[in-house]
Design a protein that fits this description.
The mean pLDDT is 78. It contains 3 helices and 5 strands; from the N terminus they run H-E-E-E-H-E-H-E. A 5-stranded mixed β-sheet has the order 3-2-1-4-5, covered by helices on one side. The radius of gyration is 31 Å and the shape is elongated. It is an alpha/beta fold. The relative contact order is 0.16.
Length: 142
């Protein structure tokens, strides 16, 4: 079509400016990177014994650990006997039917392990799980 004074009108093609969209996506990416927390699972160096009759258990239970030096840990935090009592009492107050996991190093003094079991029972804990690892399958001779 002719425009005014005999000039032709040029029709523009539609154009979407995505520069601002890229900026918004970049800000969202930065927000997610900054607000995301990465969990580190703290662990103790405990070598549990093997048991051929072991069965898989739920790992989301409160854990009591005894290392080879006889130190007590509750939830990865080192405690003494009184601290262990308080932590167990607090856990059982929140959930009376809570199952305690007693992780003892293979080289731990047996008396310390039995003492931890005794403390759990004194505080009213009735259920305990003692984790082990499955034995390595023996190689079959051809």
């Amino acid at each position: 079509m002719d425009g005014a004074f005999g000039t032709r009108r040029h029709r523009r093609k539609p154009f979407i400016n995505i520069t601002s969209l890229v900026d918004v996506m970049f800000i969202l990416l930065l927000f997610l990177m900054v607000s995301t927390t990465f969990r580190r699972h703290q662990g103790l160096d405990i070598s549990v014994p093997q048991a051929a009759t072991a069965t898989p258990q739920n790992k989301d239970t409160p854990s009591i650990s005894v290392n080879r030096h006889g130190d007590y840990y509750f939830g990865g935090v080192q405690v003494d006997e009184n601290g262990l009592r308080a932590a167990i009492a607090d856990t059982l107050k929140k959930d009376p039917g809570s199952v305690m996991m007693l992780e003892a190093d293979e080289g731990a003094e047996f008396g310390k392990v039995v003492r931890a079991m005794d403390i759990v029972r004194e505080m009213g804990g009735e259920k305990m799980v003692i984790p082990t690892r499955m034995p390595e399958p023996s190689p079959v001779a051809p």
